[in-house]
Amino acid sequence: MMNIFEMQYENSIKKNGPLAQRMRPATLETFVGQEHIVGEGKILNRAIKADKLSSAIFYGPPGTGKTTLAKIIAENTNNNFTTLNAVTSGIKDIKDKISYAVDQLSMYNKRTILFIDEIHRFNKSQQDALLPYVENGTIILIGATTENPYFEVNPALISRSLVFEFKKITDDDIIKVLKKAAMDKENGYGAKNVKITEEAINHIVNNSNGDARKALSALELGVETTPETDGEIIIDISVAEECIQQKKLEYDKNGDSHYDTISAFIKSMRGSDPDAAVFWLAKMIKSGEDPKFIARRIIICASEDVGNADPRALEVAVNAFKAVEIIGFPEGRIILAQAVLYIACAPKSNASIIAIDRAMDAVEKNAVDVPLHLKDKHYSGAEKLGRGVSYKYPHDYEKFYVKQNYLPDTMRNSTFYQPKESGYESRIKKFLEYLKQ
Ligand SMILES: Nc1ncnc2c1ncn2[C@@H]1O[C@H](COP(=O)(O)OP(=O)(O)OP(=O)(O)O)[C@@H](O)[C@H]1O
């Protein structure tokens, strides 16, 4: 349950807010996807129904239902419900919420669910302030984050919470959400006679990246800007293309533009354009992006796009992460810039990501029995079973290399790693060729 002001605010959003807010499901039955979390018999489903909720962290991409699920929980349990947004709140707001929760418990014997959006944006001392009250059960914390909580949320809070990972919403489920919004007479466009072509729906779905808010906002823009023809509003492919584009410019302040900037930033590093890379870095710093968030993207880029063409890129990136953690802003900008420029100017190879993705695919598609000669023989009786028997020890051979199969028998000679003729990796390539001569 929410307090009276929060309820009034919610109701007014429900009536007047954007389509995505108006269509926010209020019950588990209308909530799509995330079966692994809320499906029948799953722990959260049971906890909600039994009103026995413990603190939780909801982790996953935007628009996948983290806030929605927290609100459903609020509606369906007997606790108070109140919210904080970690981007806009400070320690005073946290203390106010705590004292509200303490009053509620002592006066009415009611616990309070505190939903904190973007909890990773709280610093350590802000997160620490919550701890004793989470620990003694005054507060049931539900923290939502798009960032991996094991890196970003205080381990003490994590260990007192259940972590639930939200997945991107599937295409079929997004279609359901869109069709429902088009037909819903009360909160959607059911009264407007909206027709969406199959092609338009597919286009919106394909460009929503599993984000229901993004899909609904595109539909909203389409309907609100398309005049009626013969009593119908027709959303065809050209309208859909416009809407999913324009939405990026007009709608999202923190949401899409944040992700678009990161995307431009990473693409500039990958594209070996140091000027553009440092420009997007500056934009992220100016818009208040967390330095550790930026540093993590740099680390990923160092491995994904530079890889073994210059193995030092990963070292530089990891060290930049550690350094900004110690230094913070404003000087942290120099450290980040150094790493970004290093990576933008380094030789490039995506051989590592290709290799691991191919290998993961192969693991899914093949039997993965370890060949007999590679099996562990360090236990009695292993040799009788033929384990490890015909294994050849490479150091006993010329060049410290011997030709031998290391893959499951069904996959002999599969190739996952194809070193590129780039930077240090070209030396790796030559070396492998020399071994195999
Ligand atoms: N699982 C879902 N089922 C039905 N509708 C959904 C679902 N997830 C999201 N939506 C729709 O998208 C809107 C935004 O979702 P929500 O605010 O729950 O996302 P979120 O995961 O909290 O995202 P963010 O991290 O950006 O805050 C909702 O108001 C709702 O209309």
Automatic annotation (TrEMBL):
Signal sequence, renumbered to the chain: none
Swiss-Prot/TrEMBL keywords: ATP-binding, DNA replication, Nucleotide-binding
Pfam families per UniProt: AAA (PF00004), AAA_assoc_2 (PF16193), MgsA_C (PF12002)
Organism superkingdom: Bacteria
A GO term, aspect molecular function: single-stranded DNA helicase activity
SMART domains: AAA
AAA+ ATPase domain ranges (all copies): 52-170
Gene3D superfamilies in alphabetical order: 1.10.8.60, 1.20.272.10, DNA polymerase III clamp loader subunits, C-terminal domain, P-loop containing nucleotide triphosphate hydrolases
Ranges in coiled-coil conformation: none
Entry similarity comment: Belongs to the AAA ATPase family. RarA/MGS1/WRNIP1 subfamily.
Protein purpose: DNA-dependent ATPase that plays important roles in cellular responses to stalled DNA replication processes.
Protein name in the entry: Replication-associated recombination protein A
Organism: Sedimentibacter saalensis
